[in-house]
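User: structure tokens for this one?
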Amino acid sequence: MLKVVQPATISLHEYLEFFLETRTSDANASRIIVKCDLVYDGQLRFSKVLRGGENKGENAELQVAKDLKSILTDDRPWSKKECSVNIIVNKSLSIISAEQFTQVHRQLRARVGAGAVFRVSYAHPCHYVNQRALTNLHRAGIKLQVLAVEDILREAIKDCLNDVQGLAYLSLQKLRNVSVTCDQTTINAAHFLLLNSFQVNATSLAEHVIKGNYERDQYVLGLRQEMRKKIKRTMFAGVTKNTKPKTVEGKWTIECSVSNSTSMLRFSGLTYKGGCDGDNSNINSPELIKEIQAALKQYGGKREIHMNVETIVACIPDRNNSVRQITALAEKLNKDLRGKTTVSVWCAGVENMNVPTQQAIKRMFQSDSSGQVAIEKHLRVMHIIDILNFMVDDILTMFTHYHMAAHERGLSIKIRPAELTTAVHLLRSAMHVSSDEKPYLKHRLEDHNAHERLRDSYHQNKSALLAKNLQPTAQERHPSDNKLV
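Assistant:
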């Protein structure tokens, strides 16, 4: 019998960019994200999320169909119980993928019988003419559904909570000598508050779930009407192409304030392999400086400015030179604006460095007093408490962007800040971290002294390695001894 598995999830960023947004950039136009769940006898037995371009360029939809076939063709005994397959995809299926899923549906009915339910839900139409694909799926008895805004928001919240609950199943004992536990009651309360924090046309998402009535989403209504027309026709369709997805390796944040109290501007973005990216455009320091200078004019232009530049990377040295770009940008801001600048770099891991890399990082983080105001630079290894806190902060940041997603749908998505902040606070309170040496002593994420009380072996080892790689050499300690005679 199939084992019970943990649910695979789609990130909040992907739900916003590829499911809610009706317009995508040319680079992401053919991006495919597929999520498949197989529920048998009331338990989740198979769960997988694939993105276009993974698995050596193989089509993500075909790979999911291949995995389902391998499950249904094995020798495990299947009883005549209820079994459902739910597929969520941002683009409707192509003709070849539809044929493969039709075969999977036939095998499922042969194994389970009348209790088999197969459902395909999509958010946007496929690029290619896929009337034949939708017709084949409809004739095979597969249920088709166009995802409304309420459906997408519910799936995003559910996957976010599944990510938090999945922390308890991570094998952190060998790596960090710690374990994470989650309070299910607190997470349930946070789930209810998250549903209440979203309003679709002045009606909370929780009321939509209870009553079952959805607002008239003009975009979805048009897709449903188009789908009804397409399933009555048969036309040739092409294959959905996939582009190689970008790999996220970190994020960056720039915050400017006046007199260390008033927050003026805040810029943020993600770092990918190959460079930094913010709002689908590279960091442009001249434009940032112009925006900061324009904002300073509102305060008279004479008050003291403070700039906090922070970046998070997976490893030091990073593979995409994002740390070098961010530090160079901070130095330029400090030189042009002559304000107090703090650069904080957080890394999750440290690799062994060769001598040229060590010297480059030393030069990058050495104190710079060339300008009128010195730059404070910090390079730290993240503790398990830091990682969890950054994760919760990102959840709050991503959910606040969801009100921007319904311009072409004829809907108004609003967020209640109080409920959202309380829900995220409950998520933070639901997580507790304990060490294997003292499992009875559970530390909360809000505890500022948890770093000292909780021993994270991975954090200690990598911090020691970083200090060893970046400690000054004998020549750097005594430069006067190395003068040429």
